[in-house]
């Protein structure tokens, strides 16, 4: 007799929120949620070249991806939004 188990693969829903975009001051704030839980908050000040990061590590046992990669994506998106005068944006994907 053979016993078999199906392993369930759970995908996490990762969402990038950009609740604050100041086109004039070239500042963007991004919130990254994983399954609707706050994972990372990043404030990008393109005028002064400053990036501030707050991570909610307590609720996540393992990093889902390289945080530096997420931060670089947010910085690139901030540059894109400021350059193209986009004042609201949100993106969701599965990992």
UniProtKB/TrEMBL annotation:
Superkingdom, natural source: Bacteria
Protein name: Uncharacterized protein
Record lineage: Bacteria, Bacillati, Bacillota, Bacilli, Bacillales
